[in-house]
Design a protein that fits this description.
- This protein is an alpha+beta fold.
- It contains 14 helices and 13 strands.
- α2 packs antiparallel against α11 and α10 packs across α11.
Length: 368
């Protein structure tokens, strides 16, 4: 089993392997409005379900954290494909994303052997794997944390250090990584949507006329199919059914995660997030036909997981995805004072067609 050690961590960097031992209030104070997956409660979820060693690094000033970096040590057997640089790099080549083909071509016949195990820096999540900084953080703090991650990776026998989804706007960190010899490729695009103050009417008005007409037709099909969509608490949710539907969705993308593997994370989210987690649920003919798990952080909502009954959807013609994750969700978001909905990676053209904007995410790899 892979293990981590902080034996050669720089003297000014503190480290722990348990999120429970972090200075939690100070750490969370570093997290911005887009950093829900770097907050302590999400780190608790990942730590309990990822099945890999985690290490949290931070620097302090006057006893308070000023910069922090979450890491996870992943081997070549982890099932979460979109957290693996070998899988993500191949996917980026297939998608024709910049820098990916050149990087993969230089790895020979065994890219997995060259890339894995890897120390994932910036959190074990899909999108926004960054280094947290507060107003008192200096360039020296950032450099110390990156150096600490590299030392941790070497001590742990990793082949690479990887910031797998670093946003293009993290310009100073991107420059530092380039100076330290990291190689980069585009790993995806992260989509989000600003919720108009008047909610759905304003959202619809901002779209082209042709799209407005098609959305009207989609929503009529939902009504004609007898589908109801509502926001529901996770306390009473059928999480087993959610896991079954999510597994069906992942199978479409050749990701083999069974319901039993997905269920623990749903339980952890329910227990760790409380009222800041809920589900948009589509029901028809007495059954749950689709769901979207939503997390709240400040004035933002995050669409975290989703799944669908594809046999029902094919039979009924009901466009559940768009009703759950856009039209009905935007109505709920506006009523709840939410300003931004985060949709994460993937399907960037589809998300843009529904009003999202996207920023480029880049994988940065250091070969050890």
């Amino acid at each position: 089993m892979l293990t981590t050690t902080a034996g050669t961590t720089p003297a000014d960097v503190r480290a722990t392997s348990r999120a429970a031992d972090l200075p939690r209030a100070g750490w969370d104070a570093l997290a911005g409005p887009s950093d829900i997956f770097l907050t302590c409660r999400w780190l608790d979820v990942v730590e309990a379900t990822a099945g890999v060693p985690m290490t949290y690094l931070w620097t302090e000033r006057d006893g308070r954290p000023v910069a922090g970096l979450a890491t996870a040590l992943a081997g070549d057997t982890v099932p979460w494909a979109l957290g693996r640089p070998d899988v993500v790099l191949r996917n980026s080549v297939t998608a024709g994303l910049p820098g990916a083909a050149e990087l993969l071509a230089g790895l020979g016949d065994d890219p997995t052997g060259r890339l894995m195990p890897t120390l994932l820096a910036g959190g074990r999540q899909v999108g926004g794997t960054r280094l947290l900084t507060g107003p008192e953080a200096t360039a020296a703090d950032v450099t110390s944390l990156v150096a600490a991650a590299e030392a941790l990776a070497r001590d742990s026998g990793a082949a690479t250090v990887c910031f797998l989804y670093l946003d293009e706007r993290e310009e100073s960190l991107v420059r530092l990584l380039a100076e330290r010899g990291y190689r980069a490729f585009t790993s995806g695009h992260y989509s989000s949507l600003r919720v108009p103050p008047d909610g759905y009417p304003g959202y619809l008005a901002a779209l082209p006329r042709k799209r407005r007409v098609s959305i009207g037709a989609e929503r009529r099909r939902i009504v004609q199919a007898g589908v109801t969509v509502a926001a529901e608490s996770l306390d009473a949710a059928d999480l087993d059914r959610f896991a079954e539907l999510e597994s069906q969705l992942l199978a479409k993308y050749e990701i083999d995660l069974r319901p039993g593997q997905l269920l623990p994370l749903l339980h952890q989210v329910r227990d760790c997030f409380g009222d800041d987690a809920f589900a948009m649920v589509a029901r028809a003919e007495g059954e749950v036909r689709g769901f979207a798990l939503i997390l709240r952080h400040g004035d933002s909502w995050y669409a975290r997981q989703t799944g669908y009954d594809y046999a029902y959807q094919q039979r009924s013609g009901a466009p559940l995805y768009f009703e759950l994750l856009y039209y009905r969700l935007i109505e709920e978001a506006a009523m709840s004072g939410v300003r931004t909905v985060h949709y994460g990676l993937g399907s960037v053209d589809t998300k843009r067609s529904r009003g999202c904007t996207a920023t480029e995410q880049r994988g940065h790899l250091l070969f050890l």
